[in-house]
Design brief:
The protein has 98 residues and is mostly helical. Helix content is 80%, strand content 0%. It has helices at residues 2-28, 34-61, 65-73, 80-93. The radius of gyration is 15 Å and the shape is elongated. It is a multi-pass membrane protein.
């Protein structure tokens, strides 16, 4: 499950990057909204999968409620899903569940 969570966290961050680039082209350069139309739904799906991954990984690995709340909060700011995934992977490597 933690491997799947890693893949989803990376995909969520990449979709954030794509959406941010699309928003730049839409709002700053006014050159169209194709990037937002493409990456908006992709990021939405990755966001939901990431949140589901936090909950399922927490159940499997025995994370604390605080870790779950932090993981869900990390789904909002761009790229913090990567930080959270690495943090939890490091803790799992040394045997900590929180």
């Amino acid at each position: 499950m933690l491997r799947w969570f890693r893949v989803v966290a990376v995909a969520e961050a990449c979709s954030w990057a794509g959406l941010l680039v699309g928003m730049f082209f839409k709002y700053v350069t006014a050159s169209g909204e194709l990037g937002v139309k493409v990456f908006g739904p992709i990021h939405g799906a990755m966001f939901v999968l990431y949140a589901l991954g936090v909950v399922l990984s927490a159940r499997e690995a025995g994370w604390s409620r605080g870790a779950v709340v932090l993981g869900l909060a990390c789904s909002v700011p761009p790229f913090t899903s990567l930080w959270f995934e690495r943090r939890m992977a490091a803790r799992a490597a040394v045997g900590q569940a929180t």
